[in-house]
């Protein structure tokens, strides 16, 4: 079986983390599993250098992307990272509601 074939058998965030050799804390995964997987997908999608890699090279690249995605949520949180569109939309709404303090002061 090839690396890609092995990936098809993975179902959970923990499956991916274990398979790709990424150390993790369960509490981080419990809160951020979908966000980690989405960010992992985003990093993979942006990686244009995987063409022609053998299984070992591809596994190393996947592992690095998953490690990076996991680490994003160790040091931050889903709302701050704006992983999903709902968070991006909320950030835009909050920016539209911003009122500078100077505009509230009498002139």
Automatic annotation (TrEMBL):
Sorted alphabetically, which keywords does the UniProt record give? Nitrogen fixation
InterPro entries, per database record = NifW (IPR004893)
Is Membrane a UniProt keyword of this protein? no
Q: Which Pfam families match?
A: NifW
Phosphoprotein found in the keyword field? no
Q: Which family does it belong to?
A: Belongs to the NifW family.
Q: How does it assemble?
A: Homotrimer; associates with NifD.
Q: What does this protein do?
A: May protect the nitrogenase Fe-Mo protein from oxidative damage.
Protein name per its UniProtKB record: Nitrogenase-stabilizing/protective protein NifW
């Amino acid at each position: 079986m090839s690396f890609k074939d092995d990936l098809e058998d993975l179902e959970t965030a923990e499956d991916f983390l274990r398979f790709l050799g990424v150390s993790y804390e369960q509490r981080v995964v419990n809160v951020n599993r979908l966000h980690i997987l989405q960010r992992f997908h985003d990093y993979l999608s942006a990686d244009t250098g995987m063409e022609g890699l053998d299984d070992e090279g591809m596994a190393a690249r996947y592992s690095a992307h998953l490690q990076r995605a996991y680490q994003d949520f160790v040091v931050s949180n889903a709302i701050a990272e704006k992983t999903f569109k709902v968070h991006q939309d909320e950030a835009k709404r909050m920016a539209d509601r911003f009122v500078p303090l100077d505009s509230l002061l009498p002139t």
